[in-house]
């Protein structure tokens, strides 16, 4: 199966063509997420056409579209259910109708953290492990959960993915979600940049304190979902050589797992993780597609 795939982040649009577990070609475009998603749809279309041209493929060679999106998703209808400061107009868009009318293809869409998890499970750091939690730490803080080989979604599409909106600091900052003291509001890279810019007392001890909030979140997720492995991904993993040992040490000290030790590893696929998951998603949501 050949599909078009995209991972719509707050900063970058990662766009690719995937076949049989391989990203054949990919490119990156600015997300301009504050401007909304509608202005970016022609950008996606043009990028896919360009990549297909480079591969000497046509739209007829593609079976569907897999989209990773930074929000809650209704997997049955393909509708975006909420907005968290990125692509605010997406709730009013019918992306499946756009894909059918403009590209002649079925469109499957899922939360971006779940997609990163599926990519790592099928082709990356989580291969062979069916009980996983993944934390993606970037401009937001996403979480995906796999339990006994099944993606955790829940009745309303929000099970597992709101891990970044777990309260880690009572009385802390107000989050885009409406809660106070969320991990995302306290320790995502967007918050780190804001804090560094506005607080003259910013120093390494402040950075360590904020990093500790992410370590605490990892323990919370272990207690909630009983994984065998925690995968860390996102832009913050550019400093993996510092972060991984610290998270492993914190988890070893504080996670209550009488059965044994949870492995904490870095994601292997980077920007390709959610793109690769697009193939699995198209097959899941449109099982008759070939």
Describe this structure in words.
- Helix content is 35%, strand content 22%.
- With 290 residues, the chain is of the alpha/beta class.
- The protein folds into 2 domains: 2-114 and 271-285, Nucleotidyltransferase, domain 5 (2-Layer Sandwich); 127-266, ATPase, nucleotide binding domain (Nucleotidyltransferase, domain 5), CATH 3.30.420.
- The strands form 3 sheets. A 5-stranded mixed β-sheet has the order 3-2-1-4-7, sandwiched between helices. Strands 10-9-8-11-12 form a 5-stranded mixed β-sheet, with helices on both faces.
- α3 (112-123) packs across α8 and α6 (204-225) packs across α7 (240-254).
Cα-based radius of gyration, to the nearest Å: 19 Å
The helix content is 25-40%
Strand content is 15-25%
Q: Major sheet: order of its strands?
A: 3-2-1-4-7
- Assigned CATH superfamily of the largest domain: ATPase, nucleotide binding domain
Helical element count? Answer: 8
How would you briefly describe this protein structure?
With 290 residues, the chain is α/β, with parallel strands linked by helices. It has 8 helices and 12 strands. It has a 5-stranded mixed sheet with strand order 3-2-1-4-7, with helices on both faces. A 5-stranded mixed sheet has the order 10-9-8-11-12, sandwiched between helices.
How do the helices and strands line up, and which of them pair or pack?
Blueprint lengths: L1 E7 L3 E8 L2 E9 L10 H14 L9 E6 L3 E2 L4 E2 L14 H9 L3 E5 H12 L8 E6 L3 E7 L2 E2 L31 H5 L1 H10 L5 H22 L3 E5 L6 H15 L8 E4 L5 H14 L5
Parallel strand pairs: 1-4, 4-7, 8-11, 11-12
Antiparallel strand pairs: 1-2, 2-3, 5-6, 8-9, 9-10
């Amino acid at each position: 199966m050949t599909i078009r795939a995209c991972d719509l982040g707050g900063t970058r649009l990662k766009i690719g063509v995937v076949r049989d577990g391989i990203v054949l070609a990919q490119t990156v475009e600015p997300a301009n997420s504050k401007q909304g998603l509608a202005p970016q749809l022609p950008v996606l279309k043009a990028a896919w056409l360009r990549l297909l041209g480079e591969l000497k493929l046509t739209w007829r060679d593609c079976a569907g579209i897999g989209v990773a999106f930074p929000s809650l998703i209704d997997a049955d209808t393909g509708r975006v259910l909420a907005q968290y400061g990125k692509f605010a107009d997406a709730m009013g868009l019918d992306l499946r109708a756009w894909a059918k009318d403009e590209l002649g293809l079925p469109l499957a869409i899922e939360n971006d953290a779940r997609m990163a998890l599926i990519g790592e499970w099928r082709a990356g750091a989580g291969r062979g492990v069916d009980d996983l939690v993944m934390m993606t730490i970037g401009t937001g803080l996403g979480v995906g959960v796999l339990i006994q080989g099944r993606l955790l979604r829940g009745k309303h599409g929000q099970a597992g993915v709101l891990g970044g909106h777990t309260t880690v600091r009572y009385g802390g900052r107000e989050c885009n979600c409406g809660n106070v003291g969320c991990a995302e509001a306290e320790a995502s890279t967007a918050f780190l940049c804001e804090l560094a810019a506005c607080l003259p007392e910013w120093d390494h001890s402040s950075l360590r304190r904020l990093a500790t909030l992410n370590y605490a979140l990892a323990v919370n997720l272990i207690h909630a979902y009983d994984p065998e492995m925690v995968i860390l991904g996102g832009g913050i993993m550019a400093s993996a050589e510092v972060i991984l040992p610290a998270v492993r040490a914190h988890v070893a000290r504080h996670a209550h797992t009488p059965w044994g030790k949870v492995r904490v590893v870095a994601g292997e696929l980077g920007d390709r993780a959610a793109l690769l998951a697009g193939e699995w998603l198209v097959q899941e949501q449109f099982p008759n597609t070939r």
